[in-house]
Automatic annotation (TrEMBL):
<dbReference type="InterPro" id="IPR036852">
    <property type="entry name" value="Peptidase_S8/S53_dom_sf"/>
</dbReference>
<protein>
    <recommendedName>
        <fullName>Peptidase S8/S53 domain-containing protein</fullName>
    </recommendedName>
</protein>
<dbReference type="GO" id="GO:0004252">
    <property type="term" value="F:serine-type endopeptidase activity"/>
</dbReference>
<dbReference type="InterPro" id="IPR000209">
    <property type="entry name" value="Peptidase_S8/S53_dom"/>
</dbReference>
<feature type="domain" description="Peptidase S8/S53">
    <location>
        <begin position="18"/>
        <end position="165"/>
    </location>
</feature>
<dbReference type="GO" id="GO:0006508">
    <property type="term" value="P:proteolysis"/>
</dbReference>
<dbReference type="Pfam" id="PF00082">
    <property type="entry name" value="Peptidase_S8"/>
</dbReference>
Amino acid sequence: MAKIYVIKLETHFDHKEQKARIGTRSAAEAIDAAVDRKVQIISMSWTIKQPDSNSVEKEKFDSAVRRAVKAGILLFCSAADKGLHQDNDSPAASNPTKMFKIGAAKPNGNVWDWVPNIRHLDFIIPGYEVAENASLDDDSSQNFQPQTGSSVATALGAGLAGLVICCVQLASIHTQMSRQKGHPDTPSSLTLDDLRHVKNHENMKAALRTIGTSPDSDNKFIEVWRLFGKATKDMAGKDKEQQLGVIVALAYKFRAY
């Protein structure tokens, strides 16, 4: 079961742009707090203006990001949603090669109009008028307004990475259980080493691409239904052991390293 640790950031009102802004120092402290909690994924559904070069705030923020990277944490952050204007905001600008920079996509797989140049993004994920999923008898969902933006897409991207990790983790547990019963490993057997490997930035990027991407989006739009849609159908009506078998087969596809 996934555990979510929510950190509230300090904001201030930018009178020039007439909008709330996140404080750089608060953002750095939030990343440090997440590292201290030994999290596996940090979802940063926000952006901050790039701090002035050589400033104390920039060093504090960059140091927090470096610490998270060193700890092997997967980092997901939002595009700035400025349209085609230059997007050099943080967190992405702090360490571009170790961040998953996510932009919002429309349901048809096209990038949302306010997302910056798609070439500068790692992936685009549905983030246009996303509705809350709720049970039919949950009255609270009736007051929920659909949300749009790369911040929404970033949260979904982080959740997708968490799902990939959970699949590999269950597959590694299945291997351990089979070994305890005296069964030999099979070519598709995954181990704790595989679980460790999939948490690596480049390996996770490869795993997400394995799910399936749209060529029309420069292979940036992840078509989650390609793998997970079939797996969901295959698990329907099966017992737990059979369902675990489906997950093991699914997890093996993420072994792209």
